[in-house]
Amino acid sequence: MASNGVLDARDRDAMLGRLATERFDVLVIGGGITGAGAALDAASRGLRVALIESRDLASGTSSRSSKLIHGGLRYLEQLDFKLVYEALRERDLLVSKLAPHLVKPVRFLFPLYKKVVERPYVGAGLALYDAMEGTRRPVPLHRHLSARGALRLAPALNPGRLAGAMLYYDAQVDDARYTLTVARTAAAHSAVVATRATVVGLTRGADGVRVTGARVRDEESGREFGVTADSVVVCAGVWTDLVHELAGVRAGYRVRMSKGVHIVVPRAAVRASAGMIVRTEKSVLFFIPWGEHWIVGTTDTDWSGDRAEPDATEEDIGYLLAAANRVLVRPLTRADVIGVYAGLRPLVAASESNGKGDKPTTKVSREHVVDVPVPGLASIAGGKFTTYRLMARDVVDAAVSDFGREVVPASVTDQVPLLGADGLAAVRAGAGRLAEDYRVSRSVVEHLLGRYGTLAAEVLDLVRADPELARPLADGHPYLRAEVAYAVTHENALHVEDVLMRRMRLVFESADSGAGAATQVSEIMGRLLGWNRRRRAVETRRYLDLVAAEHAAAAAGPMPSADLAVSAAAG
Ligand SMILES: Cc1cc2nc3c(=O)[nH]c(=O)nc-3n(C[C@H](O)[C@H](O)[C@H](O)COP(=O)(O)OP(=O)(O)OC[C@H]3O[C@@H](n4cnc5c(N)ncnc54)[C@H](O)[C@@H]3O)c2cc1C
To answer: Is-contact 571 522, C-beta < 8 A?
Structure first.
């Protein structure tokens, strides 16, 4: 049972049983940020909600973004004022009220290179950006900097043509963790959440028209079952057209896939104490501070290949290195790149198009579109991570509009802090006391507060019960073994990759992509999930194979050694 937002992987069979036997008001397809948001929106209106995800929560685009919660400075240039305005309001709501433990302000330098024209132009844009934010202001106003001031903050910049810089603020988030927390918050409001369950067909009512539920395949057992719901909501990102095909409907839009690649380099490779945003020929390039690393990206190119695992090519990596090196005094090399990831933007194209278009993908609007192609089925695509709450509100409004049997209250998610947010200030103030009580260092407590907010004590309780779990999972990284156990007992992790790719981000934060930790993860998970020795080896191997496939596709530098892979699989 999901009480208090606990998603215990050991309760999966009970969850699937509930899906098969209960009647739902809303069935949401897709456990990315849009689907998790829709589940929370509907559940917090008092509706009975089921959320079904075919792989893991956030395994699609929602773990592969630039991880910025931002107004989108570049959309101002495209005169997309509504999008920027809404996104800034959302950013501030998340930073100040809904998820202050997860969404954190970050400052960015915008270097200027054209002495006379650029400063007034960018300055006016940033003044507008600040003004759109309104009067409640959880992040500071922008500032003008001289070239010398810019170099003080970012000695990594090439001083050659530098004319000055602007300093402004946005926010950042661990996208996968945020999505998980939204899904858990939906579960806390009684939503039933199931992963590794794929919608393989939609069912119609007696009239042969209205959608009344879905056929679902349990990906772990291959078993199929039906789920009954008054309305089905499609939040399937780049899979949306495929779900429409399953339903045999033609929606008013199609999805255009645009691939975005990021590289990850050590923090020491770029000397700067603020993030940076620099212009490129087609768009902008971000240097985003990420713990002991920088995430540098992104690209924006049409894609028509595999939706589940888009690959980053050497060309993508070369493009990013070249774009970064145009502004850096010490160039980044291929050897600096320790991680690479690629994601697909689910952009909206007109329904008569073939999912491509004349416009380059950088120019396609990031606004979202909602459609009700047939009664009982609402779908949404487009949008941004930042505006997920508004997207969720709009698609749930569309879904309930023909319920007819009662007035469903309007969205209340602007008043629903995510799990871990309520009372955060007091728990932060008591960090020292927590460290003493649980006999761990202050930095461990800070690390946990930044990932779980007020739920950090739940992880610490596991440490108290088994002090072995206080040990770090991988050298040089802050994650504890206890967090692996917690991922199973509270965060619905079913496989090693759920932990190493999304509950933690070792897949791109560690030079070995987390391969060295896979055996330990498998052991800790196996103890809780009843895996025998052979199953543990299979689970470890499964992770190593996934990582090897990613490396082969991305040619992302040296793979973890064969010895390591073999010994891990044997464990
Ligand atoms: C490179 C890049 C950078 C970005 N940077 C930012 C940024 O910094 N800030 C920002 O605001 N936005 C950003 N975005 C946009 C943002 O990441 C996306 O808009 C958002 O993550 C899309 O979420 P989603 O839930 O719609 O799709 P997804 O996260 O892809 O979720 C769809 C889910 O549906 C599931 N699914 C599909 N078919 C089925 C089925 N039949 N049954 C069950 N489940 C199914 C999939 O497995 C998948 O998990 C970026 C996007 C990219 C690609």
So the answer is: yes
pLDDT of residue 403: 85
| Best mutation site among 16, 29, 65 for ligand 1 pocket (most ligand atoms within 8 Å of CB) | 65
* pLDDT for residue 84: 82
| Residue 485 to residue 469: CA distance in whole angstroms | 8
**DSSP conformation letters of 255-291:** EEEEEEEEEEEEGGGS--SSEEEEE-SSSEEEEEEET
SS3 192: strand
Rounded Cα–Cα distance for residues 92 and 105 (Å): 9
Q: Best mutation site among 345, 362, 364, 497 for ligand 1, i.e. most ligand atoms within 8 A of its Cβ?
A: 345
Quote the CA–CA distance of 115 and 120 in Å, as a whole number: 10
Q: Report CA(166)–ligand 1 centroid distance (Å).
A: 31
- Distance, CA 68 to ligand 1 centroid (Å)? 14
Measured between alpha carbons, how far is 67 from 564 in angstroms, rounded to an integer?
31
Report how far residue 42's alpha carbon sits from residue 391's, in angstroms, rounded to the nearest whole number: 12
What is the structure's pLDDT at 3? 55
* Whole-number Å distance between alpha carbons of 399 and 209: 15
Lowest mean pLDDT among 45-49, 137-141, 314-318, 528-532: 137-141
pLDDT of residue 555: 56
- Inter-CA distances, 109 with 122, 207, 507, 543, Å: 12, 59, 28, 38
Q: What does pLDDT average to over the chain?
A: 91
Measure Cα distances from 453 to 18, 81, 312, 439 in Å.
30, 33, 33, 19
* 3-class DSSP string for 418-484: CCCCCCHHHHHHCHHHHHHHHCCCHHHHHHHHHHHHHHHHHHHHHHHHCHHHHCECCCCCCCEHHHH
pLDDT-derived band at 365 (thresholds 50, 70, 90) equals low
The dihedral formed by the CA atoms of 535, 539, 542 and 547, expressed in degrees to the nearest 10: -160
pLDDT 10s digits, 484-534: 999 999 999 999 999 999 999 999 999 999 999 999 999 999 999 999 999
User: Using a CB cutoff of 8 Å and minimum separation of 24, what contacts does 367-372 make?
Assistant: 367/80, 367/82, 367/83, 368/394, 369/252, 369/253, 370/394, 370/395, 370/398, 371/251, 371/252, 371/253, 371/398, 372/398, 372/399, 372/401, 372/402
* Cα distances (angstroms) measured from residue 443 to each of 33, 59, 328: 29, 29, 32
Residue 551 C-alpha from the chain's centroid: 21
Tokens of 305: 């290949």
Q: What's 551's DSSP letter?
A: H
User: What residues line ligand 1, using a CB cutoff of 6 Å?
Assistant: 29-35, 52-55, 59-62, 64-68, 198-199, 235-239, 243, 260, 298, 343-346, 383-386
β-strand partners of 233: 28, 378
**How far, in Å, is the centroid of ligand 1 from the Cα of 35?**
9
Provide the residue type at 184 as one letter.
Answer: R
pTM above 0.90, yes or no: yes
Q: Residue 59 Cα, ligand 1 centroid: separation in angstroms? A: 8
